[in-house]
Specification:
about 180 residues, mainly alpha, about 0% strand
Length: about 180
């Protein structure tokens, strides 16, 4: 595992532990978005696994809070995974992550859906970065096997069109008004 990826995962696990201890599924959701971005950049198994794990934990904790179910048993598992990675025991770390997934499956059968959703989000984020660098929307969607609609929806929620145009929204609006006078 690359040192950059290890450091990022350690940071993410530390934040996940804090959010779990605070019973804050919103913080886990925010953290999940960050990790999905990392997974789309690094595209390695460990980053993707952590992205799925954090997303699944956010969903499970939300459900457990809503239904008053216990979830504190996840905390020592995540702490142990972090400790193992910190000590450089990557194989044991990966086994602990597998154990966490098994525990999540016991609480929530939707784990496969979470995996699919995280991978799709990562793919769409990656596509938006390709588009930002000048590749057409149609070609980007084709390259990554997603629909143009999904990509357009995501890009529309970002500031990518504003940055790509190099012109402020106010200037674009003024030009549009001039064209239709």
């Amino acid at each position: 595992m690359q040192d950059t990826i290890r450091k990022d995962i350690l940071s993410v696990l530390e934040q996940a532990i804090a959010a779990l201890q605070a019973e804050d599924h919103h913080a886990l959701g925010e953290l999940s978005n960050h990790v999905i971005h990392d997974a789309s950049i690094f595209q390695d198994d460990d980053s993707v696994s952590v992205a799925v794990l954090v997303y699944a934990l956010s969903k499970v904790v939300q459900r457990c809070c809503d239904e008053k179910l216990p979830f504190a048993h996840f905390i020592p598992l995540v702490q142990t995974a972090r400790q193992l990675l910190q000590e450089g025991k990557e194989d044991e770390y990966r086994q602990r992550i597998s154990t966490l997934f098994a525990e999540i499956r016991k609480v929530d059968e939707k784990l496969k859906l979470y995996i699919t959703e995280v991978l799709e989000k990562a793919k769409i984020k990656k596509a938006s970065k390709l588009h930002e660098h000048g590749i057409s929307l149609a070609r980007t969607a084709e390259l990554l096997g997603i629909s143009q609609w999904e990509l357009q929806d995501y890009i529309g929620k970002t500031r990518i069109p504003d940055i790509a145009a190099g012109v402020s929204a106010r200037e674009r609006l003024q030009r549009a008004r001039e064209w239709f006078k």
